[in-house]
Amino acid sequence: MSGSHDQAEPHGAHGDDHAPHGSLRGYVTGFLLSVVLTAIPFWLVMNDILGNATLTAIVIMAFAAAQIVVHMVYFLHMNGRSEGGWNMMGLIFTLVIVAIVLAGSLWVMFHLNSNMMPDMHRM
Amino acid sequence: MAKAKAQAQAASVPAFYVTGDDHAHSGGSTMLGFWLYLMSDCLIFAVLFATYGVLGRNYAAGPSGADLFDLRLVAVNTAMLLFSSITYGFAMLAMDKGKQALMQRWLVVTGLFGLAFLAIELYEFAHLIREGATPMRSAFLSSFFTLVGTHGLHVTFGLIWLTVLMVQVSKRGLIEANRRRLLCLSMFWHFLDVIWIGVFTFVYLMGVLK
């Protein structure tokens, strides 16, 4: 344990405004938005509402992206100011790497697959 | 005495380091460090998602997602994780108000939702394996079990962590170290819910589409 301030007054008097813990309103808003953003994609897929697989895939990916933003803002309390902006920096850096990993893998492996097709000799 | 002298010096000499004392309490940068850990965990999942994206349609003449997945079960599972997220949020609100007993009760509820999620996932895995859809069956199933299993392992460790922290809080109360740990677990838990959004969208919903 790290010393005397552990026994200090129970409610952080050390000005921890850099770690906002959210509010009841924020959590409930995030939860309700998440429920809607989860229910619609399940409904679209389970009842085959759109009748087109590609269109459905694009729509549910858009819903997933929206819900990830909702979770980041309302549950993980992301904003450009927390930890002096370094949280956001870390997130942006990670998203760039994630995009490269995903897009790069799919792109390379798709071309590898189509170039290794059994009917290559007909080219 | 020495500090006053140092400050007097700092006023005359340009300082190339932070002279402020605002992070003197332990764990001042723990939240940032834990966030960076979560970002590295995010990269692990990115690699597993990429693997699934590449191999997810290689069925080796075996069953496909449309044959195997029961979306109603997945919907229930998603609800469990979402409920556990909001109950953890309620626990954090109780912690902010210093209501330890209320916080512990919300943590118990969170743990039960987490356990329900794990139980449903294990039931699903057992069901798949009983039908012969084992990880050895096809590249699709290998990447499926690796991705979803890694997420499930994270939830398992989150539950162990949750239990340990509840014991810590009951023994030592809401001291600052415990608050910090609970906030880290809060980030971990909500982060797992974010990963699950990707899992149910890319693996389950898109796996059922033709």
Could you say which overall geometry of chain A the principal axes of the C-alpha atoms support?
A: flat
Radius of gyration of CA atoms of chain B, rounded to a whole number? 23 Å
Beta-strand percent range of chain A: under 5%
In terms of quaternary structure, the protein is heterodimer
Return the CATH architecture of chain B: Up-down Bundle
Index terms:
heterodimer, A: 123 residues, mainly alpha, 2 domains, disordered N terminus, B: 210 residues, Four Helix Bundle (Hemerythrin (Met), subunit A), globular, electron transport (chain A), Cyt_c_oxidase_su4_prok (chain A), Cyt_o_ubiqinol_oxidase_su4 (chain A)
Q: What can you see in these coordinates?
A:
- The complex is a heterodimer of chains A (123) and B (210).
- Helices cover 62% and strands 0% of the residues of chain A.
- Chain A is mainly α.
- Chain A folds into two domains: 12-77; 84-123.
- The model of chain A is unreliable at 1-19 (pLDDT under 50).
- Chain B has a single domain (31-208), classed as Four Helix Bundle (Hemerythrin (Met), subunit A) (Up-down Bundle).
- At the A-B interface, helix 1, helix 2 and helix 3 of A face helix 2, helix 4 and helix 7 of B.
What would a concise description of this structure say?
Chain A: Its main location: membrane. The complex is a heterodimer of chains A (123) and B (210). Helices cover 62% and strands 0% of the residues of chain A.
Write the layout of secondary structure elements.
The complex is a heterodimer of chains A (123) and B (210).
Chain A: H1 24-46, H2 53-75, H3 86-115
Chain B: H1 2-12, H2 30-55, H3 65-68, H4 71-96, H5 100-130, H6 139-172, H7 176-208
Keywords (chain A): Cell membrane, Electron transport, Membrane, Oxidoreductase, Transmembrane, Transmembrane helix, Transport
Protein name (chain A): Cytochrome bo(3) ubiquinol oxidase subunit 4
Transmembrane segments (chain A): 27-46, 53-76, 88-112
